[in-house]
Amino acid sequence: METPFPPFEPNGPDDSARGPRLREIPFRLVFPNLITILAICAGLTGIRLAFENRYELAVAMVLLAAFLDGIDGRVARLMKATSKFGAQMDSLADIVNFGVAPALVVYVFALDQARSLGWIAALIYAIAAGLRLARFNVMAERENKASWQSEYFVGVPAPAGAMLVLLPVYLGFLGLATDRTFAYLSSVYTVAIAFLLISRLPVWSGKSEGNRLRRDLVLPMMLGVVLYVALLMSYTWEVMVFTVAAYLVSLPFGARRWRRKYGTLTIEEPGVGDDDIGRHI
Question: According to the model, what pLDDT value does residue 102 have?
């Protein structure tokens, strides 16, 4: 027969017998991770749509994944919800959305006609994106960061690389014949973008706090952004081709600006320890 009263515990209740108590987590800490998960889902869905020959939706999902992956960190900082768990999730999303998904989409659309060479090109790009992200994480974790890190990227950043490598797909949407010659040229282009990712080319980031816009240029710039978005909605693939071309043309100007300021063609970091392989890549 059970007693209606709890047993007497002279030293107080024994909480160890109840197991670990679940701690409630504020929703603001979870929200940025949900955005990251949605980005991964979008990137993987883009791969599925590509294999189903629904290429326009596939590219749209990859670009959406890149957008979501780009804002999750900013949302986390804005909501003061940054965490090591979120950083690891973001790294996983980066390699999927900026490396694997674009490589597979461009392979299914164009590179597969080049047979093994096309697959090798896709592999090279995906691996290069992973190396680029690993180098970025190593540099971001340094306690003493160089002054130029707030103004320049080392090589083309992975989000921009995902946009650039999809150029053959944009051209195919505009009616360019996707024959075997196109596949071979696309393979060469894909490998070239991969080398831009892992290169030590100085790429101007525009994030420096010293870059200020003149007051009289604020409204024209805002109107320019509105015009760009309106054109993107109406002439999506033409605008994407123009954006890729403009970005590639801007790379020599960023390198030229670096050379005038620092006197070298590439970003070199003397005094790096031999025990840190990420800093040598």
Answer: 93
